[in-house]
């Protein structure tokens, strides 16, 4: 069921939130041994919240999200509930406060069924970097669900909850959404508060919804998007009603198709599916034209300077003193810190800290970090120029279908390449969605729709029109 379907049944009293929650919990029991998308199950809390939601519903003061079961990626702080970032470093961390997005969902009467698995500290594209467990793609259990929000995406595809929150630094909402055939939106940088989101790369991170369709995506955005004075990069703009743009009318909309995104190494089935999807949009009245974004080829390199640099600074706080894992058997303070970081962090996190520390060190700062920031500006300017003439840009979400578990884990560069189509969007701070756009055999293919800052409505409008005339998003895996 989608949020809007469940909401209708709740309003009509055909089902209660407690029943809906029990159904999700049963489904979780049934599929979790195979999918392994959830790191903390909050059954008791969920049933409590569901009872409360039923009272709100009975009183007639519900919101579209009241009583609807959801999952939260495990890098968003939840008061009294472990928030591990799928890392040993935070395995015992129980936050004393809620992230703003969690607060906002609570205000809507959310039912939280659990926290979802992720790559450790959101670093990865397959969820294999989780120190806790490996999540399997419900479409083919031998394959990855994408990452780093792989737990959230897999769980929604497998009907373990009705929607989920994810975070996206270089593709971590969109790429798993593409791999699991669900809808995932990365909002404009600054649109959704990052307060209470465990920081990976602060200038790139953004929270967004993973849902079963575009209408649900709009409903979750209505709840979570807002200005927040506790996040200094939050933009003081009023939140529109994101359901207003779901008209189905995209006549005259101008689509740019950047040739640089149809890269070498792209799977033929992916290319064919996206071209077919673009033809569909043209049938619906949009006009597509090829465009060029020549700096795209630098995006991967820029990202892997900037993201690790910011990560190395953000992760300096894990010293075993204030909170989180602490190696106590040490000779002195320095030894304790070293051991804490040696045993607390996994290999990918250490790799990023080393890359970032190197890029920021005296003598290399200008050559790497500063240069990357300059190229970042060029990339952003190129997008600005395209958006003078086009409403949206359409690309594949990922150059391939989901790969096998273990296939890329020993080759970081291959792993990094699975985000070539999504990274530039974070570099430029733009909003983008991934929606289901077909299958290669039984493996999902995602289409990415990008727009200029704060034009989420344009994206939702076009994605909605596409979903009105296709049913890829309605297919469910047989798990
Ligand atoms: N896969 C990219 C990385 O490893 C992006 C991750 C993300 O968006 N959190 O950094």
Characterization of the model:
56% of the residues are buried. The chain has an eleven-stranded mixed beta sheet, with helices on both faces. 39% of the residues lie in helices and 13% in strands. The chain has helices at residues 3-11, 17-35, 43-58, 100-107, 150-157, 174-180, 214-224, 268-283, 296-314, 333-344, 347-360, 365-389, 412-417, 423-428, 456-468; strands at residues 38-41, 69-73, 111-116, 163-168, 183-186, 206-211, 254-258, 287-291, 392-396, 432-440, 443-451. The chain is of the alpha/beta class and 479 residues long. A hairpin with a 2-residue loop joins strand 10 (432-440) and strand 11 (443-451). Helix 9 crosses helix 12 (365-389). Bound molecules: glutamine. Glutamine (GLN) is lined by residues 122-125, 148, 168-172, 200, 307, 419.
Bound molecules: glutamine
Helical stretch tally? 15
What structural class results from the helix and strand content? alpha/beta
Unreliable segments (pLDDT under 50, ≥5 consecutive)?
none
Average of per-residue pLDDT values: 97
| Oligomer kind | single chain
Q: For the CA atoms, what is the radius of gyration?
A: 21 Å
Q: What is the overall shape? A: globular
Main beta-sheet strand count, sense and barrel state: 11 strands, mixed
Amino- and carboxy-terminal Cα gap: 16 Å
Strand order of the largest sheet: 1-3-2-4-6-5-10-11-9-7-8
Helix content class: 25-40%
Strand content: 5-15%
**What's the number of extended β-strand segments?**
11
Topology pattern, helix = H, strand = E: HHEHEHEHEHEEHEHEHHHHEHHEEH
